[in-house]
Each structure stands twice: as C-alpha cells, then as structure tokens.
Amino acid sequence: MTPFDATSLDHQPGATTELIDHVARLLPQQAPLHAFVHHNTLHAFEHLPFTVAVETAGRQFGAEPYLPEAAYHRLRADGRITPADLAAVATGSGAPGADLRHGGADYVLRRLALDLDLPAGPALSWTLHETDALTRLHPQVDAVRRRHLLASGAERDLLTDLWARLRAVPVPTDPPTPRPARPRDRILEATGHDPDRLTHPLLIRFTAAYLDQGIAHWAMPGRDAGMLAAFHNLYGASRPVEPFLRDLPALVIDHTTAGRQAVDVVEWALDALGVLPGQRAAVIEATLLSLRGWAGMVHHLHRRPDRAPVSAPPARLTDYLAIQLTLDTLAARHITRQTLGPGATPADTDLLLAHHDRDDLGLRYEAFVLAQLMPVDVTALADPGVAARWLRTVAGCPELTRRRLLHLAYERRHAVTVLDALSAHQPDVGPPRAPAPAQVVFCIDEREESVRRHLEELSPAVETFGYAGFFGVPMTYQGLDDVRPRPLCPVVIQPRHIVREVADVQASDWWARRRAMGSWRFDVGSRTLARGAAASLVGGPLHLAPLLGRTLFPRAYHRWERRATGRQRPTTGRLALEFDHDEGWVGPQPGFTVAEMADIVAAFLRTTGLAGRLGPLVVVIGHGSASSNNPHEAAHDCGATGGGRGGPNARAFAAMANHPQVRRELAARGLPIPATTWFLGGYHNTCDDGLAYYDEELVPAASREAVARVRTDLAAACAHSAQERCRRFADTPDHPTPEAALRHVERHTVDLGQPRPEYGHATNAVAVVGRRWRTRGLFLDRRAFLISYDPTTDADGTVLTGLLMAVGPVCAGINLEYYFSHVDPTGYGCGTKLPHNISGLLGVMDGQASDLRTGLPWQMVEIHEPVRLLLVCEAEPRQLASILDAQPDLRRLVVNGWIRLVAWSPTDNRMCQWRDDGFVAYRPESTRLDRVTRSADAYVGRRDPINPVQVIAGVAR
C-alpha cells in the first residue's frame, strides 16, 4: 500500500471512489471456504520492512505483531533462544541515553535477558498501594546485588528514596495520541453508547442474506439490481421495529428521488456525520475495517466472481459502504438525540470528549525495578539529570521493542540451526550414481517431506522429487460428481483449458446425475416448513443408525459406507484431455493440444532435472485433505491448485507424459522419454494418509511388478509418516506403531467431533530449492518445502526465475498466514472452532451473528512456531541477486524481510544470507550433527519440535 495525500484527494472530483479503492487494499483477500488459499494476511503492507509493517498494522488493526514477551522467555528457557542470539540482535540497537555505566546495547542485552512480569493498569495501582513493592527489594534481585545495594543503608530508606527521585523527574514525552476519526468512536467515548451495537447486527444479517450461495430457501428479492438497490427495495417500504431505523423509509425515498448513486450516498452520509475535509480517508478506512471480514468478502466476490461457490451477486464495495454509513448516520442521530436532546447532532458529542493525561506510573515502576536488578549506581540517581537519563534509557526499550528483538533472536536461532545442519550434512551425501528403478514426484508441500524421507529409508533405491502440486497443468476441472467446474491451478493463473471426467458407461452417468438431483431436492425440501417436518418424521428414524455409527464408531462406519456405496475407486470415468479441433475456438478450450501437453511435460523434465535420466516408472502424486465437519477443509488442500485437490492434475500429467504423440513431440525437441518408462498418477490424502491411483488398468504388463512394489513401499511410508505426525496430537499414546498411528489418523479424518483432523502446514518454516541429494537423509521434522531444481542444467537462470516467482510468494503466503494466525489468534486468525457456524457457504461466524472470521482457527495453528520462511536456494549469490533485480515483486519480499533468503552454492558448501541490500557470507556456528539410524529414533516419544538430525538409512543409497 503506497502512501498518498488523503487531504488533497478530499477536494478532488471523484475522490471518494479513489479513497474506497485505496482502502479496499487493506481488506482481507480470503476467498470463500471451498476455495480457501493461503495468502499474506498483511499483503497491503509488503512495501514496508517486515518489523515496521507488523507494528504499523498492529496499531491499525488493533492486533499483535509478535508473541507475548513471556512466550519468548519460555523459548529462552527451552534453549530456542540463546545468549548468543540476544547479543547478536542487541548489538547496534541500543536505547537512546546510555545506562549509567554501560552502553545502550549492553543495557538492551541485559533487559532482554530479564524475565519480568510487571503489573500494569489497575493491577499496578493495587500493587503500589496495597503491597510492600516500594519498600522491599524485588524478588529477582540476587544475593550479590542485594549486598551491594544494602551496603549504604536500610532497605526501606533506600527504596523509598529511589522511588521519590524517579517520581520527581519528568518522563519522556510521546507524540499526542490522535483523536479517533470515526464518529462512532467519538460517540462511544462521549456517551458510553456504541452505535455499532445497533448497526452491525442488521448489516451482518443483510449482507449474509445478500451474498448467500443457496443455503436460504428464498433468495433476497431484487438482488440482481445490486446491493444498495436491494437494500432500498427491502427497507424503503417497511415499518422498522428498531427505533433508530424510524427515519430509514423516508431517507430511502429521499435518496431515490434525488437519484443518488452509491458514491453520492457515501458523500451525503459523511456530511451528515460531520466528517471534515481531510478526515474522509480515515473515516472510510475505519468504517470498512469495523467489519472487515464481510467488507472483504463483498470486495472479493466483485473482483473474482468465478470463485463464488455458486454465483456471485452484483456486489460492490461502494454499495456496502453506502449502506453501512447510512445505518451509522441513523444510529448516531438516535444516540445523540437520546443523550443530548432532540436538536443534537453527532458533531455535538465532540464537546463531551475527555482529555486524559499520559499515565507514566508503569514506566517509573519499571525503571524502579530495573535499577535494583541491573548494575546501576543507585546513589547517582539523586542527581535529577541522571535520573532523567535513566528514565529515557528505560523508555528507549519498551515492551514492543523488546518483543521485536526477542523475535529476531528467535528467528536467528532457527536459521542457525537449519543452516548449520545443511552444511554439516554435505560431507556424507552425494549425487545418485545410477537411474532409480522408481522415481516418485510429490508436491513441494512440507507435509510430504516426511513421506519422502520414510520412503527413501524403506526403499533406498527410490528417488523422490518435489514439484508444484498442480504439476504444471493449469486447468479448470469437473469430475463426475462435481456440480460445477473449478480451477485447479495457482490463483494468479486464469486457466484457459477445461478438462472433464467422462463416464465410461452412460447409464452409470445417468444414475449418478439422478441420484445427485434427488439428494439436492431432499436437501432443499428439508429446509421448508412442510417438507422439512415430513422429512424429520419419515427420515429421522432412518438416519439414526448412520448417526450412531458416525458418532460412536466413525472409522468402522466410514469403511463400511465406502464398501457399501462402491466408493473405493478414485474414479470411474476417463479424462477428456485431448483437444484436436481447429484454431479459432471461442471460450474455455476443452482439453489441451499435443503441443501444449508437450510444453507441460518438457517444463517438468527440465525443472526437476529428470530430463535424460528417467527410470522405468515415474509415479506422480497429487495431494489434498478430506475430513468430516471441518469448515476449513480446503485450507488443508493443495495451495498450488488454488485450494483444490491435486489428484486430477497428477492424473492428467501422467496421461500427457504417456501420450504417444506427446512423446514424439518431445523427442523432436531433444527430450526423449524411453519407451520403457511409464507414468502413473496418484493421490495422497494428507489427513488419513491414504493413497489412491488412477488408470491402473492402463499400466502395461512390463510395469505392473514395479507398480506393485512402489505401491507397497508408499503405503508403508505413509504409515510411518502417520506415526511421525501423531506425536503432535495430544490424544495419541507416546509410542504408537505405524499401523496403530494409521488407524488413529483415519479416525481423526471421519470423527464428527474432531477439531484437529490434521495440523496442515502448522510446522512450515523452511523452503529448499535444489537437488534432493543435498537434503536426502536429513530429518527436517515436516518443516521444509522441498522444491526439486537442478542448477547444472540452468546456466542462464531461466528455470530458477520461474520457480522463485512461483514458490516464493506461494510458500511465503502459507508461512505468513500461519504466522499471523498464531501470534494473534483473534485479531488475525478466526479464533477457536467451537462457536463457528458456516454462513452462506462463504465463511464462518462466531455464533449466529458476527463479522465473517478470516484467517485460520486456533486448532490449526496452536503447535506452529511463528518464524518467517527461510528460503534456501541452490544458486550462486550473483545469480540470485540478478534475479531479484529483474523481478521487483520478488525483490520486495526479500529486501523488506518477508522472506529470509539464503544462497547455497551448487559447487561447494558456501552459504550467503541476504542482509539489508546484499548477500553476506554465512559462517556455521557448529559443525556437529546428531545421527540416528531411522527417523523414528528421532521422534518416537517426543512431542516438542525437533532440530535437524542425520538419518543414516536415508543417506545410504
């Protein structure tokens, strides 16, 4: 978000529309639930350095930028922040006004190391008046310091005198706090009555009904005319019950008679509320942010109507703002008349605003305690000038500054741990000596890191690769059971191709459609008065047994249901993949041409380094997550497919790579695929660790034995991966076998009462772009996105540029959404799942009415360690720097610190970290790397995060 002169815009024609468009950038960009895709929560602040951005946004949104200070001290006690880290961040960041005998950096270092829980607000007042805090030394004063302080006098006299000196000197002055711009805030402060309590319930009900995607049996009348027109139609001829809405019908008639459009209504309301020129931008911003979830959804559906679950009504943010400001105006008039008299206006409340002096007791008490704990010459504080300097020193390292530095120390320890492990691991690994009998390609998702590692331990001859989970196939896809097509590609791509699954047997297709239609009619009818009552009487007893089964025996019932309904197979049709029509096709293209398919396969071979070294079997595994009673299910799906499931992409890619004409085209380009190589598509459910494979009936006889062997190895790897991730679930035993763990995650998947079907990306912290052999055999605790890239085949960096432009923003978006949802679960996340209700298939609300909650629920992020993504790229610093210079969007993320970038030389083990405006050589702090025989030796019996270790079984090949 770039700064602009709001005051000058207030006096320009059309400025209101421009102001609204600018404020819209602050709103959440979260899509409806079915298309949930991770993104940077503070996307509008990426032009600022990370620490500046999170603190600025924290003030703007009333949210937290970092963890609480006590949380960092717990991390320090656990060894996840060391004294070396504190010293590194404190150097050069000293507070103004040095400590009496030490430099500012030394003061900051000592202050960071102190775990102080000082009271504030009413608790501080009670402490000062009701306890002996001002006459007895603080409990954390050690024996040596105690003797030193009491050498010159009695304890009570010393402390009483110290407190008197600190109370006598003036405190450092802060800039005056600006008065709230939004009229609602001034009315609340002046009268104690909150206009939002009148307006928000109505605005939430109306917006939810207007945007509804088919949950309501009756659609809102007049919806096609637009949001403001529908509001006028609904309330213009009504007799409102709420007293504050008494003037609404007349006001609607006035707006209609005057021919006011939405922007005119906004300007009328701002004038009616007494908003002065120069304040309009702040008022519009505060108004939209007061219900930013609903405002963001209105704006999102206007920009991306294709992402609506059913269809997007013509909603515009200007209409929404006009409605909200109209209601604000009516509520403000009602409250001022009730409190100030019949002739009062909202502007009159300014006369009642109280002006409070700055409360400085907290700062003085902190200086009082620190003078006891730190090596300060207390007697020198008798000089008012020295005492004033001491107060400035303490004020120079307030809580927010300490939290920032502690967070930087925390992130530093994480980076050092990972980079030291990568460096120490290199002497024991090397490139593969021969093509593998099977090569398995997974999504880059960090949840697949454990599956890949276990597969390599169980079958050392197998090679694994990481590729973006849409596998380069940008398509809109519609399966047999899908109501409508949906994009399966990154959200920044608008797919031009549509691929449909076609039933092999038309009769089965007809039956599936009839069954779906009957299910839809029953669902709609069950929400009407007559048919709903009949459905309850007739269908209630019939649903009792399934309900008991799903509730009491969820895993067993789910397995029985799949067998009974014949849903064991992942597909019953074939893909209509090939497009062979003449040029000039209008609209979405059904399928891909041979040349387009060859482009997709060629990009895959070059990027992964598989060109020229393909084995007899290549298995391509897409992924997704299926769970019961989980509104945020799509948040566990594949981000590379736009919040969809990557199975169809893997299937389509395998079909392309097996296509005879595609192979002939690739051979002509110098990228031959051996006739003995077969590609097999598959799907991994990351929730229950189940696997499914596509088009197995097409596998040639020569490849069937290899397919059977890989299937067995992959099933075992998934069971071990289930065992590994079960250690983070509180309801599992400490030492489950892989088989028991697999049963446990299967139950998690289908249990209606399970708030944690899986933890998703909750451990993400690292992304490694490079050859797999450099990380193979390194236990990374499911924290690393692993992106396959061979720098030896990309001299000009073209492939690397494309990779970084994709994985940089995507992985950073995942990482940052988890970061913000963890550091402030209610401000940036959507809080706990327990009170959530789905609204209109769009999002969740707390209870029956609240703002549309954005971000991630606490049950998804509770185990997350909030550190910024560490992107380690196997490339020379000079090449990476040139890519950053040519790609301003990527450079902004790196230079402003939203991503921590490391260049890892392909020719040796040198690493360079990006610092400020260039790369700086990294020198490992430790060359020691713990070793275990298998991954289980590292994690069995552990619940906490585990530092990288070397797995001998994974290294051997």
TrEMBL record:
Keywords: Cell membrane, Membrane, Metal-binding, Transport, Zinc. It holds the Pfam family DabA. Coiled coil: none annotated. Its cofactor is Zn(2+). InterPro entries: DabA. Zn(2+) binds at C443, D445, H623, C638. It is found in: Cell membrane. It is a peripheral membrane protein. Forms a complex with DabB. Belongs to the inorganic carbon transporter (TC 9.A.2) DabA family. Part of an energy-coupled inorganic carbon pump. HAMAP family: DabA. This is Probable inorganic carbon transporter subunit DabA. The lineage of its organism: Bacteria, Bacillati, Actinomycetota, Actinomycetes, Micromonosporales.
